[in-house]
Amino acid sequence: MTSDLDILTEARRLLEKGTPFALCTVIEKKGSGPRDVGTKMIVGESGATYGTIGGGTLEKALINECKEALREHKARKVTFNLTDEGSDRGMIETGLMCGGQVTVFIDTVEPDSMLIIIGSGHVALPLARLAAIVGFGITIVDDDAERANKERFPMANKVITGDFARAVNELDVGPNDFIVIAHGEPEHDYLALRTMIAKTSAYVGLLGSRIKAAKLVQRLHSEGISEGGLAMLHAPVGVAIGAQTPEEIGISILAEIIRHKRSERDRTI
Predict the structure, then answer these.
(1) In the chain, N or C terminus with fewer CB closer than 10 Å?
(2) What is the pLDDT of residue 269?
(3) 114-267 classified as CATH 3.90.209.20
(4) For residue 79, what are the β-bridge partners?
């Protein structure tokens, strides 16, 4: 039988992997039911489960509720009727004949989004500081170990240095991650841009002028990448607020990222 420790260990593994899930807990049982109060189960976005609250039609109904809760990004409380008699309004019918009812709290658990900053220059530093304040995990990637290090970026979860091409190619990117390319050297920025748009991420931003952005996008088109393949690209990155200093530019970039993050969530509700 899966223990609470097993459930929490799996929850931690999913969070470290950047995978959202629903944590279900039986909070009330009246009459007969398959599991006791306190029993826990994890349900993923696809409906995959870890642990059990009883199986059968009860669990199938709960999985559907979890998937809906994850789509809405909202916790919910649901009560299941385990009798073959009529139930109170709002209860979910299961067709079971255990003789009771079970109430489950579904908590939606979503890992912090990761902001991956490719580059460690004047804009990268205030951007990392600001993003950490609002709850982003931070990854810094650069080939300049003198600037990209934990001493300069103490808020970073990871600082990746070394061969630039290999670092960006091997970068682990998830669908909830945000990427800002701010290296500054045109060929490095292009390599990072070409590599990042091929990965599955929520957002890719390119720091630079409109002329630079247009030239790099034109190169991508010449290599056969369509407009559809650049749907997640924001170039130049940032909200147009007349930003001039690195700190102001960092604010403009983070503002655009937050706007994108919230609007994407709103479209799923």
Answers:
(1) N
(2) 42
(3) no
(4) 103
202 sits in which H/E element: none
Q: CATH 3.40.50.720 residue ranges in the chain?
A: 114-267
CA-nearest of 225, 181, 157, 211 to 18 is 157
From residue 182, give the alpha-carbon distance in Å to each of 46, 155, 174, 191, 216. Answer: 35, 18, 19, 12, 14
At residue 138, the pLDDT reads: 95
Q: Beta 178-181 vs 114-118: how paired, if at all?
A: parallel
Q: What is the pLDDT of residues 105-121, one digit of tens each?
A: 999 998 878 999 999 99
Strand pairing report for 40-44 and 21-30? antiparallel
Please report which confidence band the pLDDT of residue 206 belongs to, taking 50, 70 and 90 as the band edges. very high
For residue 81, which of 66, 103, 111, 59 has the smallest C-alpha distance? 103
Is 23 in a helix, a strand, or coil? strand
pLDDT at 144: 92
The token pair at 34 is: 């398959």
Of residues 17, 18, 202, 24, the one with CA closest to residue 108: 24
What percent of the chain clears pLDDT 90, i.e. is strictly above it?
64
pTM of the model: 0.71
The average pLDDT across 179-205 equals: 92
Residue linked to tokens 């009560």: 79
**CA 263 to centroid of chain Cα atoms:** 14
